[in-house]
Amino acid sequence: xxxxxxxxxxxxxxxxxxxxxxxxxxxxxxxxxxxxxxxxxxxxxxxxxxxxxxxxxxxxxxxxxxxxxxxxxxxxxxxxxxxxxxxxxxxxxxxxxxxxxxxxxxxxxxxxxxxxxxxxxxxxxxxxxxxxxxxxxxxxxxxxxxxxxxxxxxxxxxxxxxxxxxxxxxxxxxxxxxxxxxxxxxxxxxxxxxxxxxxxxxxxxxxxxxxxxxxxxxxxxxxxxxxxxxxxxxxxxxxxxxxxxxxxxxxxxxxxxxxxxxxxxxxxxxxxxxxxxxxxxxxxxxxxxxxxxxxxxxxxxxxxxxxxxxxxxxxxxxxxxxxxxxxxxxxxxxxxxxxxxxxxxxxxxxxxxxxxxxxxxxxxxxxxxxxx
Length: 372
Hints:
Structural class: alpha+beta
Shape: flat
CATH architecture of the largest domain: Up-down Bundle
Number of helices: 9
Largest sheet: 4 strands, mixed
Oligomer: single chain
Strand order of the largest sheet: 1-2-7-6
Strand content: 5-15%
């Protein structure tokens, strides 16, 4: 648990900042869920551009004076329909961004802090729109293409390194250069990238196959339930109950499969990012052989993007279909709820993967066009 004095120090540090700060926002009690989602997008993107370790959204503090007045907002008790606020926000943010909700008492007044990780490489969107802070105003990132380009081209380094870099640049110092290594060519990153792409593709194929199988199975079982219900023969209710229990068990097994695959999926993408993004931004095309390597890798990424979109289409379709299975039985309700939750996480991951593929394709196109 975070120590009280650490949070007190953080609040005191933030309220001492200038009024116009692009990576920190203060609110009194305006806790509109959509607005919170937009601010998380804007503050994550702005924290990236400002070389900050985190972005912060604070409730219970006046915006203009930074005076602590307390808040009635209790995010951990807040629900949108039947869904908890935190999960609702995570589902609507693409790609997923880590944030922590801290409920704290400062000088006998309740304060809420959203501590938001900065994005790297990919703009964070809320409801498919990316936002940015410009002074004290929140704007759509698409209105500021120069800022969007900087996020897309950002090399993934730790926030601490970014902060250090910002201080060095501000003081006009020069970073000590590491020992020079042999410059890598396009074929080097193609070899590294192909392995990452293979791991991602295999993981997606397993999830897509499982989704297709459960979709067909549930469809057949649902038709059977309808036929039994229409027959009106003795024992109808018992037969329907047994069949819906079977459907619930199948859906639960499917959800477990996805839960097992998702860490592997994340790990594969992290490896892809580590092997490709920084290397791609620093490697040069020297000759036609390098150009051939770049075009080959571009084709592979484009194929992956098509696979991601096909998988996304199938998962969304299945999610819509299971919504009709609720209210049939308690077991089916529980299985549907768990499956929808897992599917929402997978949809968010696939949407992030699609955005990431677009970024890599953009970087490749720019490199091939500029350097050949």
